[in-house]
Amino acid sequence: MSDLLGQYINKMLEFEEKGYLDEALELSNKMLDTFVEDKLEILFERGKLQFRNANYQEALTDFIYAYQISNDPEIYELVLEAYLYPNQENLILQYQENLKLLENYPHYKNEYPQEEELHFYPIFQNDQMVAYVDTQSRTFAINHKQEIKNYPEHGNCYMMFNELWSEDILKCEEMCRILKPFMDINIPMYLVYDKLYWLLFLQLQDVTAFIESKRMVFLVGEKAFREYLSDTQVIMPNRVQDEKYANYIQALSEVTVIKYQYYNQGLEKIHQYYSGNKEMIDEHIKSGKPKILFMTSRFTTVLQYHTRDCMEAAQTLGCETELVIEPDGIRRVTDFYTVERLAEFKPDIIFCIDHFRYEKKFAIPQEIVWITWIQDKLPQSTGNPKIQGILKKRDIVISPFVSDLPGKHWNMNYKDVLKAPLSANQDIYKERELLQEEKELYSCDICYVANASNYRKRVEEYKQEIPPEIHEDFQLVMDVYFQLMKEEIFYYGYERNKEVLSLILDQLKINWPEQFVSQLAEDMVLSIGYSRYKSLIVEWLLEAGYTNIKLYGNEWGEDEKFGPYAMGVIENGEKLSKALNASKVVLAMHPVFSLAARTIEAVSSGAFCLVNDIPEADMANAREYFEEGKELIYFYGKQDLLEKLGYYLEHKEERERVVEAGLKKVSEVLTYERMMERVIRETSELLEKRSKEELI
Fold it and tell me: Is 112 helix (H, G, I), strand (E, B) or coil?
């Protein structure tokens, strides 16, 4: 160092000592321009000055630059002592904890083996840069924050690359969320990393929040990227953070092409197998042990469990089965996946609740028998007047809504409808010996399992679907309707609701189009009226002094008068069966049919069940199977409900008599094994009948 340079450095330090930091830095810049040959010494001294004054980013930049010039081990160790060693233990701990969290996370794929001993360490991060060291090569590097050039929108499947800033990740995650999610349905967000950036990320960030979102997919390396996205159930990204990562963009394009190639090959396999194979399939069905592919969705509240029950019953009957369902909230039953399963499994029958063959985008071979079990009134299943013309000879419709009682058949526009009542899975819903803690958890006088108790919320939601200019009149109509409900149970049945609605409109001198009145009457049955009736029932119980009540389902806790009894959502299956079994009385209510799932589950679980009478049109009448008063007890309005509750809560032996008789009847006629056995047999008979009709 020259004497002149030494004088300048001393002057810089003097400025620092007096608190003139800006002047000191300005002088250092002049020194760098003037003393070009002494850049190392100037950078080193300025770096120390910056560090002393808490300008850690600037100091580190100077130190790294100085080290790159000199490769001086003293500078290297100084940087580690200042930036790495104070944090190294925490970095390693964060890395190890993150790996533990990712061990069983299904949406993590890494082509590289886990690092036994780290040699890449982040030594500094702020909102502008990340600096890191490679202790193996003894080098430093700086990674500047990426500009996000293509922000996502709600509903986008978004992909980010080598992102080290959690705030940017979480911002994008929030921007591309589904606005109105249902159950656990979600859209994946892909975080793609090269190995180096992944090691840095795991040290810098806590992945807990990312994992808890259940939508973050971590892909490390191009091979892992290709393998994960090749899964036929994954959703492909439709927006990326930046197009500059050409290798991944190219890989994404190639994976898409390969998927379509396999898709077309699968269609060809399916065609080759089924072409001319109708007789063989018919023989399989006639044997009572066909291969059945069950299709459903995890984004259903009930249907996935009924599908499960039917599949387990088919297995018991000796059928080979397979289930097509989303494995989690971010994967889907795509056409790619469906074709893949059809090509591999080669079913004789496809069994699906509420959906038909014609709804698929690709042609399902006509040789396959498609069984649709109609449980809900949907446009594609019951609202299509041309439905009979759309269905083919090997489309079979089954339904609980086929009645032996006069005038109770639900006309669904089908030529042939096989009877298939909701039934019991007695492996799940059965009498149980409860542990003491289970008794304490579930025991109560009255148990009621139902969602959607907040009828006011239903009214407000309905308002969003109708013109604003009629909101005031609509509210008046609903107020009168709810008042009348306290006096008479009439909400069951479309015709009665339409009649009552018309009377209310006349009274209020409101004139609405006939089409709107008809639609509202139907919605009052299935939604608004039903929601109010459920809460009204509980109000009756509370007014009568019943307090040992457990309410399971969504929204009960939103109303303060129900809050003390709200137990939240209960898991379908064993937990629900235990709750039903532990209750003295289970209320089983449905707006349009008494042989509902809850009725069957309660009776099969050994619970005493009170079922609401449906005065107008019981679409699936439990009386066809249960003898009223002996095997199942109905109630007829408020007074009858309270009287029967009082009687049966006081007479345990009477409850037990009804429970025993109901259990016997379920075992005899209402199990899924019996239902599936009958459906398979009658399907075979119907196919034979239709085949003969073709020859005539």
Answer: coil
User: Nearest Cα to 234, choosing from 323, 161, 336?
Assistant: 336
Number of neighbouring beta carbons within 10 Å of residue 516:
12
**Integer Cα distance of 166 and 174 in angstroms:** 12
Residue given tokens 């042939």 in the structure block: 416
For 235, left (φ over 0), alpha (ψ -120 to 50), or beta?
beta
| C-alpha separations of 209 from 102, 196, 235 in Å | 12, 22, 22
Cβ neighbours of 472 (radius 10 Å): 9
What distance in Å separates the CA atoms of residue 423 and residue 309, rounded to the nearest whole number? Answer: 9
Angstrom distance (rounded) from CA 282 to CA 602: 37
Distant-in-sequence, close-in-space partners of 588: CB < 8 Å, separation ≥ 6: 596, 598, 599, 602, 609, 610, 611, 612
> Tokens 């083919």 — which residue?
392
Site of tokens 């090749």: 230
Name the CA radius of gyration of the chain, rounded.
Answer: 34
HEC assignment per residue over 114-164: CCCCCCEEEEEECCCEEEEEECCCCEEEEEECCCCCCCCCCCCCEEEECCC
What is the 3-class SS of 170-218, one letter each residue?
Answer: HHHHHHCCCCCCCCCCCCCEEEEECHHHHHHHHHHCCCHHHHHCCCEEE
Confidence of residue 235 (pLDDT cuts 50, 70, 90): very high
DSSP classification of residue 108: E
Residue 104 amino acid letter: N
293 confidence band (pLDDT: 50, 70, 90): very high
The CA-atom distances, in angstroms, between 681 and each of 187, 354, 404 are 41, 21, 19
Q: Where are the domains of the chain?
A: 3-71, 91-244, 261-419, 454-539
| Average of per-residue pLDDT across 461-465 | 89
Question: Burial of 240 by CB count in 10 Å (0-12 exposed, 13-18 middle, 19+ buried)?
Answer: buried
Give CA–CA dist 45/36, Å, rounded. Answer: 15
**CA dist list (Å): 157 to 180, 229, 245, 260, 321:** 16, 13, 17, 19, 33
Task: Label residue 407 by pLDDT band (50, 70, 90).
Answer: very low
Residue 155 identity: G
Residue type, 385: P
Angle separating helix axes 529-543 and 455-463, nearest 10 degrees? 160
Mean pLDDT within 564-569: 94
Residue 552's nearest CA partner among 540, 536, 534 is: 534
Return d(Cα 72, Cα 66) in angstroms, integer: 8
Instruction: State pLDDT tens for residues 643-669.
Output: 999 999 999 999 999 999 999 999 999
Could you read off the pLDDT of 573-607 as tens digits, one per residue? 999 999 999 999 999 988 778 898 999 999 999 99
Asked if 326 and 332 count as a contact pair (C-beta separation under 8 A), the reply is: yes
Query: 118 Cβ partners below 8 Å, 6+ apart?
Result: 91, 92, 95, 199, 203
Written as one letter, the residue type at 395 is: D
Structure tokens at 168: 């940017």
What is the reported pTM? 0.85
The Cα 696–Cα 680 span in angstroms is 25
Residue 587: which of 490, 453, 450, 454 has the closest Cα? 450
Separation of alpha carbons 429 and 581, rounded Å:
9
Closest CA to 427 of 100, 693, 672, 182: 672
Block residue for tokens 């904890």: 97
Which residue's structure tokens are 């980010």?
A: 160
Residue 568, phi then psi, degrees to nearest 5: 80, -175
Assigned CATH class of 261-419: alpha beta
The mean predicted confidence, pLDDT, of the chain is: 90
| CATH code for the structural domain at 3-71 | 1.25.40
Structure tokens at 261: 């190639």
